[in-house]
Every structure is written in C-alpha cells, then in structure tokens.
Specification:
single chain, about 350 residues, alpha+beta, Ribosomal Protein S5, domain 2, Alpha-Beta Plaits, 2 domains, about 40% helix
Length: about 350
C-alpha cells in the first residue's frame, strides 16, 4: 500500500514578511500569494522489515532506523523525521515499517516556500494513511508548529496555509497564531493575463532564510522604526494588490510590486545584494515595470511583471545572468492526497 500527497509551492505577491512574529502579533499582518504548478510530493510505502526509512529523492539523501516512536533530529532530513515524531506524539500508531519518500520541484532556499510546503505534503501523506480527522486549518497550523516550535526553524506562517489551501489568497495574521485565509475570486481573464506577464526567474543561488528572518524579528523587538514602517507599508501593499487583481487594474501590478521591493529592502540587511540589484535594474530597463525577490530574500527566485509583450525581451536579458526562467501556471488546488493499492 502506498499513500501519496502533493502540495503546491507559492509565489508571494504582496505583504511578504508581515506574517512573521512578533510583527504579526503586535500589529497584524496581511499577505497576498498564489500557488503555482510546482509542488512538494510525499509518499509512504508500507513495509514489513521493522525499519523506518526516510529519503529525499531530489537531494539523494536517505536514512534508515529501527521502528521507534521518535527519530533523531540531527540536521539530516529533519523535516521528514519531525513530522513523523509529531504524528506519533499526537496520534500514536503501530507500524511494521515504512519508507517515506519526498521530492520537491524547486531547491531548498529558493523562496517559494519549499520547506513549509514539504512539511504540509508529508503531513498529508500521514493524514491519508491514518485517516486523521484534520481540516485545512488544522493541517496548516500543525505544519507551522512542527517547523517553528518542534524544529525551531525561523520563518513566517503564510507558506503552510498557501500549500494547504491552494489558489490565490489574501491572508490575515493576528496575535495568538490566528490566521484567516480569504480566497480571492479573480476573473479568469485577469488571472491569465497575470500569469502571462509575470516572469519567474531563478537566480541560480539558494539562501538560508533563517538569518534574514532573525534580523527582521530583532528589528521588531528593538523597535527599529525604519524596519517596522517598511512592514506597515508592505501590509498596505497587500491591500492595494488585492484591489488591483479583483478590479482588473493589471497595469498597476508592476508599480505595486516595485513599491514593495523598495520597502522590503528596509526590513533587514542582506535581503538584497549587488547581484539582485543588477538583475532587477536590467529587467526594468528591458520592459518590466516592477518585481520582487520571492521569500525572505538574499537569492532564490525573483518575479518580474512584464506588461504587453515585454516578457520576451526581459527573458532574453535575464538569460544573460546565468539563471533560469521557470515555466509555471497558477493552480487552484492545495494539498491533495490519495492511496495506491
């Protein structure tokens, strides 16, 4: 028996960083994001060898253990083991052994929410196997707790909810880990045009988001006015982006993204760097009206809004930097699970 799941990665369009505590606890955060046709995949295959094997197929990493209620957290495949440990703690089950395999369509540290999406996918496989009575909010919150509390990984809250719910969502974040997901009913022609005009570019570098996020947290705790004001502006940006998408004001999208990029730079050091600035300047000079770094910043993916038919010239220019333009489409569906006999 094999239990499978997949969860979509996401593009953050506005408000990035305002989902991170303590900002979201003190001021309330707001983010607009959209899931795309790149995903994190997980499968659990039942075995009878009294072994628990965990493997990341995309990274060619594997570990195997005798069946136990908790697996060691040692810096290798911790997301996979962390989910198993939490499931055994909350919903204990007996096993003759299994192989947990994962594959993610984008590298870790790329800014598309890969780690959190992977946790959601792994959770989904266990929910499918054990028939756990968990709804979308339950799964997203449990994924958040596994990452942020159990494994002590720095980060925000948006990725777990995007991966679980899917689609284009306006998300609100409040004190006490309270999250409200508002699905947006965007006209199909607006969404098609957004998809056509939004170029997704991988800078061919990955980054460790934790250090950037930790500085962001420090800036809020120390009442750094410049950083906090930037976050206020990014929260406002998410509302402006929501109105532009719902009303079809697509000619404003690039400027809204550009405004957010200017604010994002103020939140913490190393969000941008010389390479990112060079790429951004070149894209704008070739026809993009705005863009942003996806995720915490420092590397990974960037997105650029290229109106009319400028995407082709922008892509040609981006290709000179040694990265890769990634094809994608928006997807409506979040976490999906199924069983193979």
């Amino acid at each position: 028996m094999i239990y499978r799941s997949k969860a979509p990665l996401r593009i953050g369009l506005a408000g990035g960083g305002t989902d991170v505590s303590p900002y979201s606890d003190q001021y309330g955060g707001a983010i607009l994001n959209a899931t795309i046709s790149l995903s994190a995949n997980a499968s659990i295959e039942i075995t009878n060898d009294q072994k628990i094997t965990v493997e990341a197929l995309d990274r060619k990493e594997e570990e195997s253990f005798d069946v136990a209620n908790a697996l060691p957290i040692n810096g290798k495949l911790d997301l996979l083991k962390g989910v198993y440990n939490r499931i055994q703690k909350e919903y204990p089950f007996t096993t003759t052994g299994f192989r947990l395999s994962t594959f993610v369509d984008a590298p870790a540290g790329s800014g598309l929410g890969t780690s959190s999406t992977l946790v959601v996918a792994i959770l989904g496989a266990f929910v499918e196997m054990l028939k756990l009575p968990l709804g979308d909010y339950d799964i997203a919150h449990l994924a958040y707790e596994i990452e942020r509390e159990d494994l002590q990984l720095a980060g925000g809250k948006q990725d777990q909810y995007a991966a679980t719910f899917g689609g284009v969502n306006f998300m609100e974040f409040y004190e006490g880990n309270r999250v409200i997901v508002n699905p947006l009913r965007i006209r199909p022609e607006y969404l098609h045009e957004l998809e056509n005009n939004l170029v997704l570019y991988f800078t061919a570098t990955s980054r460790e988001s934790a250090s950037i996020i930790k500085e962001q947290v420090k800036n809020v705790n120390s009442k750094n006015e410049k950083s906090i004001e930037a976050m206020h502006q990014l929260k406002e940006q998410s509302k402006i982006m929501k109105e532009a998408l719902l009303k079809g004001k697509l000619n404003e999208i690039g400027e809204v993204l550009d405004f957010g990029f200017q604010q994002k730079r103020q939140m913490a050091a190393n969000i941008s760097n010389n390479s990112i600035e060079e790429i951004y300047t070149a894209a704008k000079a070739t026809g993009a009206t705005g863009g942003k770094i996806s995720g915490a910043g420092g590397g990974g993916f960037m997105i650029f809004y290229c109106p009319k038919n400028t995407r082709y010239a922008v892509i040609e220019r981006l290709n000179t930097f040694g990265g890769e333009v990634k094809n994608y489409s928006f997807t409506k569906y979040g976490l999906t699970t199924w069983t193979i006999n």
